[in-house]
Amino acid sequence: MKILAIDSSGLTATVAVLENDQLLAEYTTNYKKTHSQTLVPMLDEIRKMTELDVSSIDAVAVAKGPGSFTGLRIGSATAKGIGLALDKPVIAISTLEALAMNVWGVDGLICPIMDARREQVYTGVYRFIDGKQETVKEACAIAVDELCALLDAMLDETVLFLGDGVPVYREQIDNKLKHSHSYAPPHMSRQRAGALAVLAAQYYKEAGLTGAGKINGCSIETAAEHKPEYLRMSQAERERSQKNVNKGNDS
Amino acid sequence: MIKTAKQRINNDIEINKDILILAIESSCDETAAAVVRNGRSVLSNIISSQIDLHTIYGGVVPEIASRKHIEKINQVIEQALKEADVALKDIDAIAVTYGPGLVGALLVGVAEAKAISFATGIPLIGVHHIEGHICANYIEHDDLEPPFMSLVVSGGHTHLVNVVDYGVYEILGRTRDDAAGEAFDKVARAIGLGYPGGPKIDKVSKEGDPEAIDFPRAKVRDGEYDFSFSGLKSAVLNYLNSEKMAGREISVPDVAASFQKAVTDVLVEHSMNAVREYGAEKFAIAGGVASNSALRKAMETACEQEGIKFYRPSPVFCTDNAAMIGVAGYYEYLKGNFAGLDLNAIPNLKLGDR
After folding, report:
1. What's the 3-state SS for chain B?
2. Which chain B residues touch A34 with a CB distance below 8 Å?
3. Which residue ranges form the domains of chain B, and what is each CATH number?
4. Minimum Cα–Cα distance from B63: chain A residue
5. CATH of the domain at A108
């Protein structure tokens, strides 16, 4: 089985090719160029490096969100375009689950945090039991203080943080969180398409066995139906529904 | 083995086969794809309009537009291929709008086109949206070839362009503030007609007197061919206000017709000045506002008076569509102007830049 994996949900652009138990290539950049300029050239680079016949892949895995709206769409449109061209399915993986996969096998709670602006983070809580990833808290957008309270209420006493929210909220976490905690080093702290591909391959196999289309935050979709999961409405929709709520309260 | 673009062209010319372009357009609120043969013949033209989604907001909301594009884009492309009865392997190049437009919206089409190009090796062509609008005229008019004068009027653009050759443009004038279509939207909102303003004003104007109110025809001091519509919009708002203060009832058809006449007069006057100055023998109108019946009629009459030939696309090719992008892409294909996989969306792309 061969999977092409793509993640452009945050500042990092990352792509990988996984064939069975081998990560054939992984290319990750975290630089100021836009994903629109880097992502497909990176795919083309690993294609050349590994002499990959793109039509031999079984599926395209993509980080479906949460993340930067535009970044998610660049990744999704890229996956959809490849899926359309080659008639292959898209394996949509939660950005946060893929991030947690970066630190496979650690004890305690794993908490990826992505800067979601508006004083919130996109986050979820995960742990590994017998090498298998489990979701403790589903993906959501919440304030860091709220996240700390939530973590402190959990029984595990260690938390490992990672993600691009760390540099923004590290001090606040240190001040608030009572549980002992640490932060992943740079090579594990940001999106890695290799981890995304491994997770996608696991789900793909499981779905093949059970016939299930959706397991945890993952789903196997046609390229046409795939779309990002933003976790948030657009600003215009939010303001409009807020206005309607206020109107409702007035009457 | 993937052939390079140049090899493909050489092969094509040798065997003199048809050139098929798959075109993708997502610069604003229409998700569109088309297949065009030899730059003139439209085999399919699929447009998924989002207008109903944006109507409640009184205009296009960029984030909502971008979200809808990603949901629709594959279906639209697949349908375009199906209706044209071709497969991707028959396609010679993929043309995509990369600007100007809403950046988030453009990025969906650009990323999709690049991914298809990456996965198949089909060469990629970046197309300028306004160039597409002008090229829409080639679809139904086999006799139209450059040079000619063209006016592009839409919700986002007002450009007076001297089309020197295929892909060679000289911009003579553009709007300094609002686009013509934008002025239509704003005035329509002020007189309670709602969004989108263009078709609504066009319709209600038919029952109004275009000479009822004398709205200003703005001149731009240092730009003979430039346009300005914000003054006209303010004049309409001031008129509505003063009538209200005086307790007089407003005739919506009269305001609409008079406003429309003021816009049309300026567009026609500048266009015909350019036709005379540059000795153009043909004139082609393009863009969403080119569907406006009063503008079409006035422009046609003016062209008759000048003794030059008037061209206009059918309404379906006036609004945003991908067929026009396929036509423009074909002429870039002939020149070998291909884009790399690093093609980016450029929201303020200038006509003639490459």
Report:
1. CCCCHHHHHHHHHHHCCCCEEEEEECCCCEEEEEEEECCCEEEEEEEEECHHHHHCCCCCCHHHHHHHHHHHHHHHHHHHHHHHCCCHHHCCEEEEEEECCCHHHHHHHHHHHHHHHHHHCCCEEEEEHHHHHHHHHHHHCCCCCCCEEEEEECCCCEEEEEEEECCEEEEEEEECCCCHHHHHHHHHHHCCCCCCHHHHHHHHHCCCCCCCCCCCCCCCCCCCCCECCHHHHHHHHHHHHHHHHCCCCCCHHHHHHHHHHHHHHHHHHHHHHHHHHHCCCEEEEECHHHHCHHHHHHHHHHHHHHCCEEECCCHHHHCCCCHHHHHHHHHHHHHCCCECCCCCCCCCCCCCCC
2. 344
3. 5-135+319-335 (3.30.420.40), 145-313 (3.30.420.40)
4. A234
5. 3.30.420.40
Q: Contact B74/A44, CB-based, under 8 Å? A: no
Asked if residue A10 has pLDDT above 70, the reply is yes
Chain A residues touching residue B70 (CB < 8 angstroms):
73, 76-77, 80, 227-228
User: A185 and A103 in one domain?
Assistant: yes
Rounded to a whole number, what is the distance in Å from the CA of A114 to chain B's nearest CA? 20
List residues in chain B touching A: CB distance below 8 A: 56-57, 61, 63-64, 66-67, 69-71, 73-75, 77-78, 88, 103-104, 107-116, 118-120, 340-345
pLDDT at A78 over 50: yes
Chain B environment of A223 (Cβ under 8 Å)? 74
pTM of the model: 0.93
pLDDT digits (tens, 9 = 90+) for B49-87: 998 889 888 889 999 999 999 999 999 999 999 999 999
Q: What is the average per-residue pLDDT within B214-223?
A: 89
| Preferred mutation among B112, B117, B195 to probe A, highest tally of A CBs within 10 A | B112
Domain shared by A214 and A107, yes or no:
no
Q: How many domains is chain A partitioned into structurally?
A: 2
ipTM of the modeled complex: 0.95
- Specify whether A72 is located in the same domain as A125: no
Q: Are residues A225 and A182 in the same domain?
A: no
**A226 in a structural domain:** yes
Q: Does A6 touch chain B (CB under 8 A)?
A: no
| Domain termination site, one of A189, A224, A243 | A189
Going by pLDDT thresholds of 50, 70 and 90, the confidence category of residue A212 is low
Q: How confident is the model at residue A210 (pLDDT cuts 50, 70, 90)?
A: low
Query: Are residues A168 and A202 located together in one domain of the fold?
Result: no
Q: What is the pLDDT of residues A176-208, one digit of tens each?
A: 999 999 999 999 999 999 999 999 999 998 887
Residue A204 in domain: yes
Give the residue from chain A lying closest to B61, CA to CA.
A236
A240, part of any domain: no
Q: Which domain holds residue A169?
A: 97-189
